[in-house]
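User: Could you check the structure of this?
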Amino acid sequence: MLFKQALIDTGKDDPECRITTVTYKELKYQDLEPFFEVATPIGLDVAYWKESIALAALAIVSAEIALVIEFSPPDRRIETTPAPDPDSEQYQSLMSFLSRDVGEFFAFDLAPLAMSLYEEQGLFLKNAVDIQSAFPKQNRNIISGILKAALGDGIKISDFLVSEAFNNATYNPEQRTAALGPVKRGWLAFYLGSVDDAVTTYSNVKRIDTYGMNEGVCLVVSNVVGIL
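Assistant: Sure, the predicted structure tokens are below.
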């Protein structure tokens, strides 16, 4: 599937972004290998199962490629989340990518994203920037306000497409275009982290690093952001 962004007018012809979708159980190192080679910022976004609000998909997005990893729905017969298998290829591959030392991740609403990955899949995140944290509080919950604060008041925004992307974070793998939602949000996060003045804009934003937190601190943060 190809994604040709029309969310904002960047003033140039943005390249098409090729989307690959894979289930977490089938994830291989080779699926993530192209992103290990990307030194520029990478956008992240997640989507959730409508019935349980559990983690359904993780989108990893750069300028021309995106990977959407689909997670299995929770088994309602089991009260606790099964422990991840730290020896599995999918766990080790994704963990090494999310906790790499090179480059940074950018995302909207990063705290619940990071804690969903930790609490449900045992995955840690390193060198991650919460985009909203760089802007005044009155703009943090209005995506168009964030885009204007980051890119200037003159930026042309497709209000319909942006609202469509952000108003529904649920995921239905049966829908052919399911991957587009998190990819659109992830692409905007990638773009905001890649503009020329991004280094200055996000220089004072404290990086989220669940990799460096002990388990007790992670559980406290999980409670605060409402994951548990």
